[in-house]
């Protein structure tokens, strides 16, 4: 974004100041920033009191061996008790915990009392299968209630879980089972996806033929679709038979605050996936606090919906642990936003009276592409806070989200955080901060973050560099499972004493933070560092463009050439001259150096189910390489469609 465009945008954002009634009722106020600045550890100790501890911690942070942190280390608690039992004991057993909506239209409302019974039964079942405290359990599931129940059952007995995204290949599943040394796998026969059953169990069977995964004793299978599936007698067990016959009462055991809660694998640019380890007390403190603060949660009246998948960290933190620790009522949806029609999400918002919605920028841009008239056909007046997660949101999508989904009245919280951070770190707060479309803005109370240059020096307002975290935080990853050295090398070696997030960022004139995407997505063009996010934002600001993805391709003259893939609004055909018009538009917004060398109009972009664009696959296309692994895509056939439209590269001017 050019300096002129940025200045114009900030002038425009003054009209997004929170209404007085929102500010008056906010869960967190400006005083929280002051309190956290004055006594950061005292502030986090206060947030830990949101939880129920069997033994209250007396020590907040042990940072004697950095960067290996211990938070609330002498405290003891049970995560499942905090997410389920204590709400029943407080008289909220009849409150709906989960409104499940299946893709075919089936639905189920699960109260906290019912959730307590089912989690207790699942905990007994795992114990019967020989799962003990500290044993790892792999979970490979669709978006169904049993996925949440399985996670909570593991937490209840102190067995760290490793959730694997349900669209990952058998090889990816096997790698994760082997690395975590899981002995039990929980899966289902399949789930519903794009109007049809999609099998999962065969991938488990194939994964368990790999030598590293051969130590799995049992596979616990939920019957969801009724598909015929292979069956190994003695190893495979039906969930409804094994779990269904267990006692409905189970006494949870308290564990040390630093007891491992889960391992979640995130891909590196090279090598095997990294097993990010999160522990118990600090993680639960921060996800509960941030969910309460950032969404201004009122558990007695709100209906919350996070559209992420359970297989990603957003699903862990803001579908399972954060909302349930706060006693929230939430929606769990199995399917895609356009099955059976493009208004499916808004139909769900209307049906359940959703008040808090948390989704990804790519999903927002997809809905923009489908047209303004689709959300206009539904009653979305229940919404009062909108959230964005997963990657930087371009200002145009931010404004569309607020105007067409929020009716021009809702705050939008643009959150930055990662699998590694465990919980939200940078975000506006409803009723407290002035909204700036496209900016994550300000570290949350208790979080210390800044932007530094190549030498680790904090940059001045109006300058850019690298986003770093300067102080430990409760939900931080503790290490990479089984590889402390990789943990040190990956996150703590670039800037001494600071966590390097891997993201580029800049400060505006007010000192607010704007995320520029992964440093890997910063292109070097003729000696200039250019963010893919900035070029994408410039393209989407053109009235004909609904979505854009930009990559840098090796170029002998400029080091890298900018290649853009765009989706036209309303599915309109590409008109003659549009490519040159778009190139000129970017040059006007960002300068001639940022003008794309190639622009290709496509029908869809390669996305994971969580909504992230797989830019590495677009880079493969731009550099005419064989495509890498496409198994994580929602629709792998998208790559064939993109390749079929490839033109020859134009000469630059």
From TrEMBL:
GO terms for cellular component: cytosol. ATP binds at residues 390-392, 414-419, 503, 518. Its EC number is 6.2.1.1. The keyword Phosphoprotein does not apply. Acetylated. Deacetylation by the SIR2-homolog deacetylase activates the enzyme. SUPFAM superfamilies: Acetyl-CoA synthetase-like. GO terms for molecular function: acetate-CoA ligase activity; AMP binding; ATP binding; metal ion binding. Mg(2+) binds at residues 540, 542, 545. CDD domains: ACS. Residues 534-612 form the AMP-binding enzyme C-terminal domain. It catalyses: acetate + ATP + CoA = acetyl-CoA + AMP + diphosphate. Keywords: Acetylation, ATP-binding, Ligase, Magnesium, Metal-binding, Nucleotide-binding. InterPro entries: Ac_CoA_lig, ACAS_N, AMP-bd_C, AMP-bd_C_sf, AMP-binding_CS, AMP-dep_synth/lig_dom, ANL_N_sf. Its cofactor is Mg(2+). One of its GO terms (biological process) is acetyl-CoA biosynthetic process from acetate. Residues 90-472 form the AMP-dependent synthetase/ligase domain. CoA binds at residues 193-196, 314, 338, 526. Catalyzes the conversion of acetate into acetyl-CoA (AcCoA), an essential intermediate at the junction of anabolic and catabolic pathways. AcsA undergoes a two-step reaction. In the first half reaction, AcsA combines acetate with ATP to form acetyl-adenylate (AcAMP) intermediate. In the second half reaction, it can then transfer the acetyl group from AcAMP to the sulfhydryl group of CoA, forming the product AcCoA. This is Acetyl-coenzyme A synthetase. It comes from Streptomyces zhaozhouensis. The gene is acsA.
